[in-house]
Amino acid sequence: MATTRRTFLRTSSVVYSLAPTAASLAQSGPDGVQLGFIGSGVRGKQLIEEFSSVPGSRGVAVADLYDGCLQRAKEQLGDDIWTGRDYRALLDKKGIDAVVIATPDHWHERITLDALSAGKHVYIEKPLTWSIAEGPRLIAAAKASGKVLQVGSQAKTSALTAKAREIIASGALGRVNMIRMANHRNSAEGAWQYPVPPDASEKTIDWLTWQGRTRKRAFDPKIVFQWRRFWDYSGGVAADLFVHQFTQMHEIMGVQAPLSAVSQGSISKWKDGRTVPDVMNSLLEYPEGFLVDVYVNQANGQQPRGIFIYGDEGTLLVTFNKLELTPERASGKAQEYGSLNFPKKLRDEYLAQFAGEARPSRREPKEIMVERGQSHNWYFIDSIRNNKPSRENAEEGHFAAAAAHLCNLAYRHKTRASWNPATAKVKL
């Protein structure tokens, strides 16, 4: 690479612009990509807003099992859009080019398979899967369809991630030996205790359909709006929060998947009937020779979210909006502590050999500024309109989600969980 380790270590603050031009989106027809949204809850609402700002796309239909979300979707996109509870009716519409799926995790595979079968391009929120076994099926379906499938982990395509990847490839950190990924939050909202709409009932929600293939239970509106608290519908903190960082870390390091995981966790604070832990820590082994220590703490908000990449020659901190590179302190050859057991004469003679050597000094962190690039959503529309490969394909989404599932399996079975990424077979 043109940028070397020495270049990075000598640079105190550099601004890089990695933003692609938006001109390419103007190459296709005036109608652009017609989007249908399946699932318009909290994240679905955000996605409607995000795609509304992407040139060359237009939201024309929304499917959701709660009538209030359909009403709000019309407030966002206009009264002339199609809305309904049955996502299959949305898929039957010939004018829709692509769908954006933001449902609970237990519906991801079925809806994605149906959308690809209907000839639609697919943007599917992370995690791609609810279980490891679903990954190979979705990879095969995406390949057979010839359509763009992009998984929604926004950091995957960020300019900051691209620059971090370049730093690692340059050798600026030396040999990477450990990565720590942290995510703290300490609020009811951060623990997924989202408010329940006052009109939530079996009249306004299709509860039977919402449950899908999971075990049937009596109607509980809290489950519908706080589903991440339960194993039946989600992968908990690992699938919701670990996956963001696994996706980004895999891209930065240029790696595919871990070999094994061990986990510990507990329900420390939010004793609200949830079945998933609110504090969880996992340690994973990667075949490239480094360990990954990843955790979520929903009972403490002091540590900011970030990825710390440790090498024998430096450390890289990756946050939402900056990169910080800290070279390792150079170690001197003279060992004052290690030579304490020498007789005085021998120790004096030993230290005298290094009399002219400069004493090691602390290396200061160096911030590397990165200008904001295009959004993850932009790349999805660009791939469709300009016949480009997905920027986060099914295989990449599967491996990021599988890393989280491996952590969950280790936690739930109280053992080391290992797997073969090529076959997706897990050993407990």
List the helices and strands and how they pair.
Blueprint: H1 5-10, E1 15-16, E2 33-38, H2 42-52, E3 57-63, H3 67-77, E4 82-84, H4 87-91, E5 98-101, H5 108-117, E6 121-125, H6 134-145, E7 149-152, H7 159-170, E8 176-184, H8 207-211, H9 221-225, H10 236-253, E9 260-266, E10 279-285, E11 291-297, E12 306-311, E13 314-318, E14 323-327, H11 344-352, E15 366-370, H12 376-385, H13 394-413, E16 417-420, E17 425-427
Parallel strand pairs: 1-15, 2-3, 2-5, 3-4, 5-6, 6-7, 8-11
Antiparallel strand pairs: 8-12, 9-10, 9-16, 10-11, 12-13, 13-14, 14-15, 16-17
Helix pairs in contact: 2-3, 5-6, 6-13, 7-10, 10-13
Q: Can you offer a commentary on this structure?
A:
There is one protein chain. This protein has about 425 residues and is of the alpha/beta class. It has two domains: about 5-10 and about 155-330 and about 365-425, Dihydrodipicolinate Reductase, domain 2, CATH 3.30.360; about 15-155, NAD(P)-binding Rossmann-like Domain (Rossmann fold), CATH 3.40.50.720. About 30% of the residues lie in helices and about 20% in strands. The protein has 13 helices and 17 strands. The chain has an eleven-stranded mixed β-sheet with strand order 1-15-14-13-12-8-11-10-9-16-17. Helix 6 (about 135-145) runs antiparallel to helix 13. The longest helix is centred in the last third of the chain and has 20 residues, at about 395-415. The two termini are about 40 Å apart. The model is unreliable at about 1-30 (pLDDT under 50).
